[in-house]
Design a protein that fits this description.
One of its GO terms (cellular component) is membrane. By secondary structure, the protein is mostly helical. The chain has one domain. The two termini are 19 Å apart. The radius of gyration is 19 Å and the shape is globular.
């Protein structure tokens, strides 16, 4: 259970760090860049992924290149969503991405659609609608917020689908993630050097915040992997505890630490999201 709680804490702290970025003057794009340097280094040192799997003729380079482009883009969307929509709604949208992944599993991966999964899918879609509703109907950033939430929802589902394709092809997911982290860092570093030459200098504060972001980002992955290894017979427990834990802790942190407002409809969406996650987990 300690691994699961640590994974939940790291996930929510990623959102907290992104929420603090504009207040502290940290450049989000620079933070995302250095995040991948830290994540790639820690992945290589602590998980030692089997990189020889990437040297064979069947190596999933197209999927890895997709991840290298999507992951940093999604991180930037996540930062914008936390800023405009808040931690509460962003974390729920992120966790509800499992609905799109589930739909993809039905359509493309031959997974059977049980009654419980379909019920979870239905509840989850209702939850998405409730979460997208603006807490303050008069808020001028409402349209931007729900657009960002939809991108978070779809983006994390896309990452999950790509990793599932990799797993079905027999390539170790950790090796693909390691390659994607390195490629993402290289691409983002090139962007930052270009920005540096055009009036956006690299900042030491953003470097430090980005490295911390990478530690938390990788910590979320590491502790989640360790939790599955510690509870090999209970994958549904790990899955449900992780997702429900992030929704619950993210809600507490967003409301209590940052004073985020939620409407009755938003709160109903959170309850529906928890029920949907529990239903889906019960059939895993």
């Amino acid at each position: 259970m300690a691994y699961l709680l640590s994974s939940v804490a790291c996930s929510v702290l990623v959102s907290v760090l992104l929420k603090l970025a504009p207040r502290r003057g940290w450049d989000a794009a620079q933070m995302v860049t250095w995040n991948y340097l830290a994540a790639a280094a820690l992945c290589a040192l602590l998980l030692r992924p089997p990189l020889q799997a990437l040297r064979g003729p069947g190596a999933p380079w197209p999927e890895m290149l997709v991840l290298a482009a999507v992951l940093p883009s999604l991180f930037l969307v996540l930062a914008a969503s936390v800023r405009h929509a808040g931690i509460v709604r962003t974390d729920v949208a992120q966790r509800l991405s499992l609905l799109l992944s589930l739909g993809a599993a039905f359509l493309w991966f031959g997974e059977r659609a049980s009654a419980a999964k379909l019920a979870g899918l239905g509840l989850g879609l209702l939850a998405v609608g409730c979460i997208l509703a603006r807490p303050d109907p008069a808020a001028t950033a409402g349209g931007r917020a729900w657009g960002l939430l939809l991108l978070v929802w779809a983006g994390f589902a896309l990452v999950d689908v790509v990793l599932k394709r990799v797993a079905m092809a027999g390539t170790p997911s950790l090796a693909v993630l390691q390659g994607a982290f390195v490629l993402a860092f290289a691409g983002m570093l090139a962007v930052q050097l270009w920005r540096h030459r055009h009036g956006a200098p690299l900042a030491a504060s953003s470097l430090g915040a980005g490295l911390l972001l990478g530690v938390l980002n990788f910590g979320n992955i590491l502790f989640y992997v360790r939790a599955h290894q510690a509870l090999p017979e209970s994958p549904a427990v790990v899955f449900a505890t992780m997702n429900i834990g992030v929704v619950a802790l993210g809600t507490l942190v967003g409301v209590l630490a940052f004073g985020e407002r939620t409407s009755r409809l938003n709160r109903a969406g959170i309850v529906l999201a928890l029920a949907a996650i529990a239903l889906v987990a019960a059939t895993r």
